[in-house]
Specification:
elongated; alpha+beta; 301 residues; 14-stranded antiparallel beta sheet
Length: 301
Amino acid sequence: MTGAEKGKGSAASVKRILGYTVYACLAAVFFLFLLFPSKDAARYAEARLSGALPGLSASIGDARLVFPLGLRLKDVTLSVRDAEWLEARELTVRPGLFSTLAGKPACSIGGKIFGGTLSADVSLKGKREERVLSASAAVEKLDLSKAKALKTLAGREITGFLSGKAGFSGSPEEWTAGEGKAALVVKSGSVRIEEGLLPVETLTFDDLAVDVEMKDGAGNLARCDISGKQFHGKVSGGITLARPVGTSRLDMKGALKPSPEFFKAMDPEDPMAKAIRQQAGKDGIPVRLTGTLADPKIGLR
């Protein structure tokens, strides 16, 4: 056998080995996906999520592998101390392989929640007693009417479609001492207000833009601009954070300016309508927001 013939034989052997290797890998992946124990994986994911943060419990309907290297969770519910905070039809979790191997668990999360979409990156660093959670998230067109936790927290009906971005860094156990910020927009929204405060039961708006920051146990509402057919106005102020979050104290001030359409819908002889006209002035009706997140009090200053 000549040298050329030996070379061709070696090349053919290498091709056969590569072919068998690729086939074996593809077959392994195929059977891994086909035989993946989805129910057991869902129960495992529930246990891992439930132990991730204090008071957190999880319910997952199904879990399946997705390519490349991910887990798709369906019918996900996350509750904090028996209060439902998140309900997702579908979430896909992809671990950060290299950071996780280095002892710094991280993952990216994407999916469909409250009729909209979520994309987030989450990581944990440090020892268990000194863990630092870093998270960033973006949401698009979340239907607030489907967020049960929001209604429970606010104690009233709130509707609208939420989009925006948020970030947080701090201890998951002592989150009030962490740092974070968010820029959010709610479109086509409404909120029920206290009876007797205004001659309407529900305040509707076209756009609500909010910029909020938190640091050293305090939140700052740097901007809250509202506009719509009934009113437009601005509110700003502070939030003293507390646990549970519903007991956080509010101290905010601003002004709402009623539109001509708002007054047209009212009885001009109504005493409240007259009072609002007198108070509105050039800069609108002065308002103050106090109380807690779970029980806010809106007053006309």
